[in-house]
From TrEMBL, chain A:
TM annotation in the entry: none
Example of a GO MF term: CoA-transferase activity
Protein name as annotated: Acyl CoA--acetate/3-ketoacid CoA transferase subunit alpha
Coiled-coil blocks: none
Keyword line: Transferase
Pfam family, one: CoA_trans
Record InterPro entries: CoA_trans_fam_I, NagB/RpiA_transferase-like
UniProtKB/TrEMBL annotation, chain B:
Protein name as catalogued: CoA-transferase
Single Gene Ontology MF annotation: CoA-transferase activity
UniProt source species: Streptomyces guryensis
Similarity comment text for this entry: Belongs to the 3-oxoacid CoA-transferase subunit B family.
Database matches in InterPro entries: CoA_trans_fam_I, NagB/RpiA_transferase-like
One Pfam family, short name: CoA_trans
Domain of life: Bacteria
Residue runs in coiled coils: none
UniProt xrefs under SUPFAM superfamilies: NagB/RpiA/CoA transferase-like
Length: 278, 247
């Protein structure tokens, strides 16, 4: 059994410009921010990003790394509109495939199940069809004859997710209230990288937690990175809540200044700069 | 219990009429999930649950189904929430940056979608909501900027674009001025009730399309004393509802 532990830098070294990259979490919740920060330190760009968008999208957009975004929304939750994403969109910075939250989910399911598409009762009648002229519909072959959107599989080259704990083999555990779609992201990608608050022995995972907290299975995982506070400033329940004060700093500081202050060094430097800030 | 709450009740505020109008959206809904977005709809949903719609399910805003006293009664992570939408056992009240006379709703962007003048949230779940479960809307500031002739990006589907959508229904739109529905032959928006103190002229002035107005427009109903007590002492004792709608 192979030890998949690695570092954020090594993960990024296996990514390339032009890739389709899935990012787990939801809005400003349990985003793999340490991996995103490592990505920002590289010169990888021209990315197609697939995300229930939060500051992951905001930062990559602000840094000009996105060629195309696939998302139903981008938000910081407690700050509804993501300022850097807004600036990028209003400047026409990248292509957007704007789809509904359920369409997105069924696109992940299709990819995870190696299906070309799944029928979804969503999108028809809305301008999702106008702004995505490549979306096709499919008519039920049964008596009902209803027409659905044929949501194409959201297959990805690589997925980045963050969970509470993992073992060295890639079994990932979430201890918060919502798994989001992180397991699906891993199943829908050719390679999946899991960062976590802490790497523990396999036996430790279920010592005090039920087996159904084991969200991510090792056969879907390529690499495991220990990244304490790695979802910062997004939430990672029950380990920590969202750092609202820092998120406000992020949202109100011009991007070049924010990047210079917090993203100039490595992850350790980032975490120290955050501690000094609070 | 302090003396203030035992004193004769103060007259309902505009925000409290809005709470009642939102709560009424969930009357006779049965055992479905009430999904309020925005503060006043949240107060309204809890009021409905505590009074005339005791079978409603409510979440804590995250992945937990909770009783009004905070007791956990279920688990509803996003993946199950989206599946529940497909089953239709839910009545959501969404916000609307723009809404038109047939109930098409926009929360995505203002201006040309290719390069918006103002990027907003994105379509979120509006397309799936409107095709699968009853979807009502809440607009805290009724104006011509919101009630428009044509929305810039159709997120929630309106009646004129819902042909063949078997589960499409927009029970009501609640604003700070009144309650609106689509009970007209062509399913265009109709003034259903005015909040006390608001005139038809005021609503027409603040609406950017031709609104159907019946000859007799009722008033939004009065809250009962018990409802006012629940809103003021139990559900929203901090009075945050006044921040969403002033008096």
């Amino acid at each position: 059994m192979s030890d998949k532990t690695t570092t954020a830098e090594q993960v990024v070294s296996r990514l390339q410009s032009g890739m389709t990259l899935g990012i787990g979490g939801w809005g400003s919740r349990r985003k793999p921010m340490a991996l995103v920060r490592a990505l920002l330190r590289s010169d990888i760009g021209d990315l197609t990003v697939v995300s229930y968008g939060g500051p992951d999208v905001g930062m990559l957009a602000a840094a000009g790394r996105i060629r195309k975004l696939v998302a139903p929304f981008v938000t910081l939750d407690s700050i509804p509109l993501e300022p850097h994403y807004r600036t990028a969109r209003e400047g026409g910075a990248f292509e957007l495939m704007e789809i509904d939250e359920a369409m997105f989910m069924w696109g992940l399911h299709a990819a995870a199940n190696r299906l070309p598409f799944l029928p979804v009762r969503a999108g028809i009648g809305s301008d999702v069809m106008r702004v995505n002229p490549r979306l096709r519909t499919v008519t039920s072959p049964y008596e009902d004859g209803e027409t659905f959107v044929a949501m194409p599989a959201l297959r990805m080259d690589a997925a980045l997710v963050h969970v509470g704990r993992a073992d060295r083999l890639g079994n990932g555990q979430y201890l918060g209230p919502d798994p989001y779609f992180d397991d699906l992201f891993c199943e829908a990608a050719d390679a999946a990288y899991v960062s976590c608050e802490r790497i523990v022995d396999t036996a430790e995972l279920t010592k005090e937690a039920a087996p159904q907290t084991l969200l991510i299975k090792r056969h879907t995982v390529t690499g495991v990175v220990e990244a304490p506070n790695g979802a910062h400033f997004t939430s990672c329940a029950p380990h920590y809540g969202r750092d609202e004060a820092f998120q406000t700093t992020y949202a109100t500081t011009p991007w070049p200044e924010f990047a210079a202050r917090f993203l100039g060094g490595d992850e350790q430097a980032y975490q120290s700069a955050v501690r000094e800030e609070s | 219990m302090n003396d203030v709450t035992r004193a004769p009740l103060l007259a309902p505020t505009r925000a409290e009429y809005c709470v009642i109008a939102c709560a009424e959206a969930w009357r006779d809904n049965g055992e479905v999930l009430a999904s309020p977005m925005g503060l006043i709809p949240s107060v309204g949903a809890r009021l409905a649950r505590l009074t005339f719609s005791p079978d409603l399910l409510l979440t804590d805003g995250e992945a937990t189904l909770v009783r009004p006293d905070g007791t956990t009664e279920g688990w509803l992570p996003y993946r199950q929430h989206l599946t529940l939408v497909g089953g239709g056992r839910r009545h959501v009240m969404m916000g609307a940056s723009q809404i038109d006379r047939f109930g098409n709703q926009n929360i995505s962007c203002i201006g040309d979608w290719e390069r918006p003048k103002r990027q907003l949230l994105g379509v979120r779940g509006a397309p799936v909501n409107t095709l699968n479960n009853p979807t009502s809307y809440w607009v805290p500031r009724h104006s011509r900027r919101v009630f428009v002739e044509k929305v810039d990006m159709v997120c929630g589907v309106g009646y004129d674009r819902a042909a063949g959508a078997r589960y499409h229904r927009i029970p009501r739109v609640v604003s700070d001025l009144g309650v609106f529905d689509f009970a007209t032959p062509d399913h265009s928006m109709r003034l259903a009730s005015l909040h006390p103190g608001v005139t038809v002229e005021q609503v027409r002035e603040a609406t950017g399309f031709d609104l159907a107005v019946p000859d007799e427009v009722p008033s939004t109903r009065e809250p009962t004393a018990e409802e006012l007590r629940l809103v003021r002492e139990v559900i929203d004792p901090a009075g945050s509802r006044a921040r969403e709608v002033g008096s």
